[in-house]
């Protein structure tokens, strides 16, 4: 049975941090005690494998295919695309009243994997050369530890074929638009006419309309402004490509996901160690009513850290530095927050919003693409960025709509005494009581989905809707009978702040807790469903539609120009563009540190819907046993499955 939970009671568990993320850290070890670089992390490789294979002169080696590289590596200009939610026909009645209509346009999802064949000698040699080059650059007595990406990140036991089978078996075929595999490529010859892309040997790529194998060269892009002066721009970024492709850094590769052409409105992003174990439906990923489903681990906080701040106590090659840097970027744009970690399973990404975020931070994103290993230089975590950007923009849109479009009724940008009274109406006592509304109950979610012609989620509880407010609202203990937050009018709405822009900036960013509580107040005012109290009336002053500005792409809230007088349609559209759900599902993240950990894999009596398995075996002794055990487990699950993209009779390690 579905059930609503409190998701925002927030305690960072230090134990959890220690165990999960700082585990392999030689905590206070002096610098010179770090292990020396491991140049042959994958396998020792004979030197001449660095020579690229030449398909033109003979047979293409197994596991590779030739393709024509793109003419240009320059980033295309950003174009605003509507999100899936914005395509709902009854936007106004749904956003304002919570009255749904049939969703004429059905959502589809692209399942996207990033994959590297860890035992491919050409790639291993390329990687070793990159590690050697990077190590050579780090000379001097205070040389930081450089181990290159750990070899375990690349060890495989047949994950990829089984991950794809698991998705094929569990997701409705009508929901999946395409299966997309993003893999490495290397130069094939000196003429630059062809490159070679890695393809799993068991894969039949003939049905390109539904299965797309893309290579790094096909998505890695650089903004022209980020190319070094010395670079010859006439070659349209090809020198840049040659420096940074192929990439061995998952953050660098993920940073380029927004550049995959012609994506469905939603991406379900998997690493090859992610699996779905139970049948799921569209609403487990997204719906046009409620938006994308994010799965967030609320007991694990991520603090913002500016580039250059101390990395003491952090595993530089882990995922933590990228998360902290990304949160700092979000702090600059939306105000300082301890945002929360995303559950370590496959992720849902709203594509138009991901592209918007990538456009805002395009320099930071291309810098990330240029980082060939984790932990060296600031690196954006695209998945974390997209998720929290969506949540923050929804909050911003609510406050913008109320303060700048509704409360400033004549849209002159200044609060008259009468307008100011409307603004702070009901806040005089300072206490805003809080209750989850009827409209967000499991019953109404099911009914609304049904009215929209959609199935209920099969394996997800919708714990928190974006129309429940800002999930990080801090001053609130939601599970107490007297749940409330407080607004001090003198602090949140100082009399000196006369323009609507000043008030909005103060409430939304400078004093974030004011904005969080104001949202709760207005949600209560809106009644059991909908967000009516945030919206300007339909007759509100409104600029002509050809004057509607494109989305702001500034990186800091102080630089964004928020305009008065945009009217009701604009407000409704912005709010619903960033609609989202926070959900929980039966899920498990398993780190295999010892061979016996295999026993903790889910079995039939202990099913989860979403699983991620990391091979983190510390000792080389158990590798063969672990390989056997994993293959046995995969065979039990998907041994009988043959997806249409699997070649007949191929060996499927
Ligand atoms: C990875 O590369 C090795 C060496 O070429 C090959 O034997 C193996 O089959 C490849 N694995 C896949 C899944 O393509
Ligand atoms: C008005 O708001 C701005 C934020 O835009 C803030 O920096 C400023 O201190 C406020 N002024 C007064 C007089 O409260
Ligand atoms: C608004 O708050 C009041 C006071 O707590 C409560 O009685 C009422 O039910 C709330 N309204 C909604 C729609 O949640
Ligand atoms: C299934 O997994 C659970 C939890 O990991 C374990 O307690 C149980 O013994 C397992 N059952 C079987 C039949 O292996
Ligand atoms: C690949 O799939 C096509 C049909 O889509 C089929 O005709 C062909 O025989 C397959 N090739 C192999 C090697 O399985």
TrEMBL record:
Residues 109-130 form the Stealth protein CR1 conserved region domain. Residues 343-392 form the Stealth protein CR3 conserved region domain. Pfam families: Stealth_CR1, Stealth_CR3. One of its GO terms (biological process) is carbohydrate phosphorylation. GO terms for cellular component: Golgi apparatus. Keywords: Signal, Transferase. Residues 1-22 form the signal peptide. It comes from the Eukaryota. GO terms for molecular function: UDP-N-acetylglucosamine-lysosomal-enzyme N-acetylglucosaminephosphotransferase activity. This is Stealth protein CR3 conserved region 3 domain-containing protein. It comes from Mycena metata.
């Amino acid at each position: 049975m579905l059930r609503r939970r409190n998701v925002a009671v927030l305690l960072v568990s230090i134990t959890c941090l220690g165990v999960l993320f700082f585990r392999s850290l030689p905590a206070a070890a002096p610098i010179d005690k770090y292990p020396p670089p491991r140049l042959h992390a994958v396998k020792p490789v004979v030197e001449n494998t660095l020579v690229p294979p030449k398909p033109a002169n003979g047979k293409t080696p197994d596991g590779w295919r030739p393709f024509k590289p793109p003419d240009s590596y320059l980033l295309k200009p950003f174009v605003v695309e509507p999100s899936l939610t914005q395509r709902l026909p009854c936007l106004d009645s749904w956003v304002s009243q919570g009255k749904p209509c049939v969703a004429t346009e059905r959502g589809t999802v692209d399942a996207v994997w990033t994959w590297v064949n860890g035992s491919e000698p050409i790639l291993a040699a390329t990687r070793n050369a990159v590690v050697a080059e990077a190590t050579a650059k780090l000379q001097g007595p205070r040389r930081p530890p450089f181990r290159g990406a750990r070899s375990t990140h690349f060890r495989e036991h047949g994950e990829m074929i089984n991950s794809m089978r698991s998705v094929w078996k569990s997701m409705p075929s009508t929901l999946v638009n395409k299966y997309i595999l993003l893999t490495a490529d290397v130069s094939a010859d000196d003429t630059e006419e062809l490159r070679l892309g890695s393809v799993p040997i068991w894969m039949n790529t003939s049905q390109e309309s539904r299965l797309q194998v893309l290579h790094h060269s096909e998505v890695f892009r650089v903004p022209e402004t980020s190319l070094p002066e010395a670079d010859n721009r006439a070659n349209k970024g090809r020198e840049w490509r040659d420096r940074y492709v192929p990439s061995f850094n998952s953050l660098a590769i993920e940073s380029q996901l927004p550049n995959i052409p012609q994506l469905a409105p939603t991406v379900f992003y998997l690493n090859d160690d992610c699996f779905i174990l139970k049948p799921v439906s569209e609403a487990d990923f997204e719906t046009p009513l409620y938006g994308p489903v994010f799965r967030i681990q609320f007991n694990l906080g991520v603090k913002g850290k500016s580039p250059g701040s101390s990395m003491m106590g952090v595993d530089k090659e882990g995922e933590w530095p990228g998360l902290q840097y990304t949160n700092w970027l979000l702090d600059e744009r939306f105000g300082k927050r301890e945002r929360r970690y995303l559950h370590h399973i496959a992720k849902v990404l709203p594509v138009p919003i991901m592209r918007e975020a990538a456009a805002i931070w395009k320099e930071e994103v291309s810098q990330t693409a240029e980082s060939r290993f984790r932990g060296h230089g600031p690196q954006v975590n695209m998945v974390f960025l997209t998720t929290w950007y969506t949540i923050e923009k929804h909050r911003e849109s609510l406050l913008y709509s109320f303060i700048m479009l509704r409360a400033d009724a004549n849209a002159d940008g200044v609060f008259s005494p009468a307008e100011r009274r409307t603004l702070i109406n009901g806040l005089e006592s300072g206490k805003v009581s809080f209750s989850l509304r009827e409209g967000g109950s499991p019953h109404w979610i099911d009914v609304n989905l049904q009215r929209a012609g959609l199935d209920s989620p099969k394996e997800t509880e919708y714990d928190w809707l974006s129309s429940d407010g800002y999930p990080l609202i801090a001053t609130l203990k939601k599970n107490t009978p007297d749940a409330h937050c407080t607004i001090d009018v003198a602090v949140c709405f100082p009399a000196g702040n006369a323009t609507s822009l000043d008030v909005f900036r103060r409430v939304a960013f400078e004093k974030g807790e004011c904005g969080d509580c104001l949202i709760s107040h207005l949600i209560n005012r809106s009644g059991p469903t909908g967000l009516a109290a945030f919206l300007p009336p339909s007759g509100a002053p409104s600029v002509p539609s050809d004057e509607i500005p494109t989305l702001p792409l500034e990186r800091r809230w102080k630089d964004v120009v928020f305009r008065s007088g945009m009217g009701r349609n604009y407000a409704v559209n912005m709010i619903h563009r960033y609609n989202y759900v926070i959900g929980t599902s039966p899920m498990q993240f398993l780190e295999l540190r010892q061979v016996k950990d295999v026993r903790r894999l889910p079995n039939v009596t202990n099913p989860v819907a979403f699983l991620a398995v990391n091979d983190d075996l510390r000792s080389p002794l158990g590798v063969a046993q672990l390989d056997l055990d994993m293959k046995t487990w995969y065979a039990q699950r998907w041994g009988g499955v043959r997806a249409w993209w699997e070649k007949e009779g191929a060996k499927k390690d």
